[in-house]
Amino acid sequence: MFDLGTSFIASVGRDPNAVAIVDGDVRLTYAAWLKTISSVVAALDGLGLSAGDHVVTALQNRWEAATLHWACQFAGLIITPINWRAKADEIDYVIDNADAKAIVFEEVSVEAVRQSERAAGIIRIAVGEPASGSDLTFTKMTETAAPTAVPRAAADATSLMLYTSGTTAKPKGVPRRHRAERMAALAHVAQNLYGRGECTLGVMPLYHTMGVRSLLAMSLIGGTFVCLPRFDIVRALELIAAERITNLYLVPTLYHDLVHHPRFAGTDVSSVRKLGFAGAPMTDGLLAKLTDAFKPELFVNHYGSSEIYTFTINQDAAAKPGSAGKAGLNQHIRVVKLNAANHDDLAATDEEGEIIALASSDEAFEGYWRRPDADAKSLRQGWYFTGDTGFMDRDGDLFVTGRADDMIITGGENVSPVEIESCLSKHPAVGEVAVVGLPDERWGKIVVAFIVATAPVTAQELDQHCRTSGLANFKRPRRFEFIKAIPKSTVGKLLRRQLVAGDYEPATPARSDSHVA
């Protein structure tokens, strides 16, 4: 099987003159990009880095970050990208945990790197302007004279290590091999029906599996990766029109912000024919709005993770709202009973349980970095226990209902936030919604809906909407809180724990008592 460096060489052979990457004034063909990548490989060699060393990056989605990703694949280095917003102590943790030998940073991350004790003891490479006298510069690296790089990593070598976001514990390293990364990219091409020469908006971070997948998938088909360093709605709309973007692969939050922006209606988005989303469920209301706005040929709900990548695929997401579809090309899944002892303790049709996936998938990782405790919890009897809840319907389609930790147990009944969120999203005055369980002396927990309203609305009106929608009585929110913004992670994932902790800014509803009967 190809390693990723060989895969890139093959792409250059097929499409040397196709535009590979765009970032502002930078436009590189595959042939030209290979020359730059080769210079960076030679520069990395000159720094004394060896195959298997970890190179940490704290970069936005810029062409230099993508170039470093590919250079590490050729050199056999393990690229270890982290959030460019990481604090000094978080950088210290990753450098120490990965035994990293180098860190690459830019202006937005320079202060945290300067404050990092561990960064002071390794090679530091500056991208852009933040270099001090002791730092190397990426620009100098690209000027290094070099022959065309020869791939040095085997398909079984480790390609990169992503870190899962930690909530109550430190983030876990997820090492992934070249062959798993390439297989995941091939499956992504097939499952999203990408054709030769596609053009994608490269906005999902390259420290996130969705961003990496977009980068690799474009390389396999001679496609173009258009960099957007951080999500800026106006700039995203400008790039969609100017670069004739053909496909979007985003989290639901970014789609929401895109189609609700005042400039969306006046932007030519006709080139976008394929939509894909992952990272979180999409509400029925947003599915309908996107279908109307883009009229896509393909609308894919992709359910996966950094560890396994693809669990399931639904290639007609709008036709069956909420459905994550069936197992991907390289996967087999099951739903087992909550707290199941083993993988054979299957949940019945329509019964909510935990989603598990076969760990021997060609796309899968093989265990967490130095975390046997996490392996023991998640990898059992050849299966990966996701910690996600869901159920299979009579058609064999999977519905993901949330995280096991997010399940609300109220009066002895299990309630999934996702179903309630989808119901409320259909109300015309609801811009965004998040549902959590809050402690209650009588019920254990009560269902509470946090609403970002786009028009005057009362709690009583929203409660009536839930009643008439057919939502079961015990699932109806007992309280509505109107807030200014839903707390989210840097990649747009809903942070329910902040709502539980009271970490939000209230908004004043037009008129209502927040409690309902």
TrEMBL record:
Residues 419-493 form the AMP-binding enzyme C-terminal domain. Keywords: Ligase. GO terms for molecular function: acid-thiol ligase activity. InterPro entries: AMP-bd_C, AMP-bd_C_sf, AMP-dep_synth/lig_dom, ANL_N_sf, ATP-dep_AMP-bd_enzyme. SUPFAM superfamilies: Acetyl-CoA synthetase-like. Residues 11-369 form the AMP-dependent synthetase/ligase domain. PANTHER family: LONG-CHAIN-FATTY-ACID--COA LIGASE (PTHR43767), NONRIBOSOMAL PEPTIDE SYNTHASE PES1 (EUROFUNG)-RELATED (PTHR43767:SF1). This is Long-chain fatty acid--CoA ligase.
